[in-house]
Design a protein that fits this description.
heterodimer; A: 398 residues; mainly alpha; two-stranded antiparallel sheet; globular; B: 164 residues; Four Helix Bundle (Hemerythrin (Met), subunit A)
Chain lengths: 398, 164
């Protein structure tokens, strides 16, 4: 890599070291390490909520485009300053708490929800040498803090003392617990292949180039299946359409955060989007080569630009899915997780094992692909034929 | 005793006491989750990353949720009106003290507390995985079989009964 591109690539790392060098003479040793931690965390606290603000506008514009309408178009040029208006509105709105609500838990729920989401960012590498903490058990840490969000959702739903919010919380927990299994099992294939739980090592394993294609895991049969299964589970974990049953505006109004207003509501919104970004970021780290460029010659462009390009591309696909796919029904949701996703991720583990132990060459591509495609087709057919579909009849209240 | 340990211990014990003494069952379950988190923090303070994170993942992520669900599906989480202390609290305390004494005595005289700690073992997640798949593979398989049996049992209980 040439000197100039390396300078740009490492500019934020250099900046941090320069700031620490300025602080070194004035601060004692113990405070200096604290300053280092804070300097690593400030970008996370600034950039991802900023991305959230932009995404809310982009999502509403994108959905508007899909649904053949304008979307927000009043605040700022083309309505792109809508997020500022929304933020101000959330801040100055009255904070309503239901009289029957459990005040303490009602207050704590949004806070408990936002903290684990921010914690998960600490193990996410956004560029070369740009990870807050390189933990030996990084991926495990990610899922461990993610477990905290389920409890927060329950706290919100239960403490509101509202039957819709309780229904939403029950739905959310059932969905998150069910989809956590395919989510974790689809990452296990990558962990098996790399032999490490550290996010930095996982990216290192995908850093080489093979002819035109980079050695990303998504370009292997098990990696492709794993990536698709991972993204479906990630959608379900972040409660986004078509898995937005916990919120389902038309059925249970807003689910577990129905009784929240003002800035607490904004916190739920923030946590949902930040959760979506961080889980997409983990998908990029595990399957899409992290911050590496798709072509070796393009590595001159700074690594963090590649990471955010990939992240925005995934967000675009998620908005696209939200605009096109209708919401699932509860039994469909559960059947999909337990009867379809779970067997497929288990078979994907076997595929990965076969891939690992067969000699490189055409044979292992054929065998692995036939297992992935074959299991998908057979399982899909079997479940579809089992449904006894008939002509839909409509019943009306008389 | 270091300051972080004191904070963690205080948090865990307070949460445990709250778990046993709060009136509302859902509050108790949430306090239990805090206590689980405190235990995880204690593991992390001992540099046991894997155990600490697994503790959070399993206890806060699964066991606490299970407790909360069980409370919701049975009693609806309404506060109880029964007395906080049961009538046999004297006997209960005596038994607890005896059990604690026996355990403490055993640990004091155990092999683990008497051997000298020479160097801190540097156990990475990879080492733990190697040990689980190598030396301790049989216990792991037995636990796996047991859990699978429990899972199948749960499915059979939940199955719809066929009409005769």
């Amino acid at each position: 890599m040439s000197g100039l591109s390396e300078t740009f690539d490492q500019i934020f790392v250099t900046l941090k070291h320069w700031l620490l060098g300025l602080l070194a003479p004035v601060l004692p040793e113990s405070l200096l390490s604290l300053a280092s931690v804070i300097l690593s965390l400030i970008p996370i606290m600034a950039i991802f909520p900023g991305l959230f603000a932009i995404t809310t506008v982009l999502e509403r514009k994108g959905l508007g485009r899909i649904q053949n309408r304008y979307g927000p178009n009043r605040v700022g040029p083309f309505g792109f300053l809508q997020f500022a208006a929304d933020g101000v509105k959330a801040l100055i709105k009255e904070d309503l708490v239901p009289r029957a609500a459990d005040k303490v838990i009602h207050f704590l729920a949004p806070v408990v929800l936002v903290i684990p989401v921010f914690l998960a960012y600490t193990v996410l590498p956004v560029g070369r040498n740009m990870v807050a903490v390189d933990m030996d058990a990084g991926v495990l840490f990610f899922f461990a803090v993610g477990a905290g969000t389920e409890l927060a959702v329950f706290m919100a739903g239960w403490s509101s003392r509202n039957k819709y919010s309780l229904l939403g919380a029950m739905r959310a927990i059932a969905q998150m617990v069910s989809y956590e299994i395919p989510l974790i099992l689809s990452t296990v294939t990558v962990i098996m292949m790399v032999g490490s739980l550290s996010t930095v090592k996982i990216i290192e394993a995908q850093s080489t180039y093979h002819g035109l294609l980079p050695d990303w895991f998504v370009f292997t049969p098990w990696g492709l299946a794993g990536f698709i299964l991972f993204m479906i589970s990630a959608l379900a974990e972040s409660n986004r359409s078509p898995f937005d049953l916990p919120e389902g505006e038309s059925e249970i109004i807003a689910g577990y955060f129905i009784e929240y207003s003002g800035f607490k509501f904004a916190l739920f919104f923030l946590a949902e989007y930040l959760g979506m970004f961080v889980i997409s970021g983990l998908g990029i780290t595990l399957f899409l080569g992290g911050w590496h460029a798709p072509l070796e010659s393009l590595e001159v462009i700074p690594s963090y630009i590649w990471f955010f390009t990939k992240l925005i591309a995934i967000i675009f696909v998620l908005i696209w899915i939200r605009g096109t796919v209708p919401r699932l029904r509860m039994d469909q949701l559960m059947n999909f997780a337990w009867k379809f996703m779970l067997p497929l991720v288990l078979l994907n583990l076997i595929t990965a094992a076969i891939w690992h132990f067969m000699a490189p060459g055409a044979a292992r591509w054929v065998v692995s692909f036939s297992i992935v495609i074959g299991s998908y087709l057979l399982l899909g057919r079997a479940l579809f034929n089992n449904q006894h579909l008939s002509k839909r009849t409509y019943r009306y209240a008389e | 005793m270091t300051i972080p340990f004191a904070i963690i211990a205080l948090m865990t014990i307070t949460a445990t006491v709250a778990t046993m003494s709060l009136r509302n069952l859902v509050h108790c379950a949430l306090a239990a989750a805090v206590a689980f988190g405190g235990l995880a923090a204690a593991y992390l303070q001992l540099d046991a990353q894997f155990v600490g994170f697994a503790q959070i993942l399993v206890y806060v992520g699964a066991v606490a949720i299970l407790i909360v669900f069980a409370v919701l599906l049975t009693r609806g989480g309404e506060p109880t009106t029964e007395a906080l202390f049961s009538k046999t609290w004297v006997t209960g305390t005596a038994i607890a003290v005896v059990v604690f004494g026996v355990l403490a005595w055993t640990i004091r005289n155990s092999f683990a507390s008497q051997c000298e700690i020479t160097a801190l073992p540097d156990a990475t997640v990879k080492d733990i995985g190697g040990a689980l798949m190598g030396k301790y593979v049989l216990p792991l398989e037995v636990i796996g079989l047991l859990l699978t049996a429990a899972l199948i049992g749960a499915v059979i209980i939940a199955l719809k009964e066929e009409k005769k």
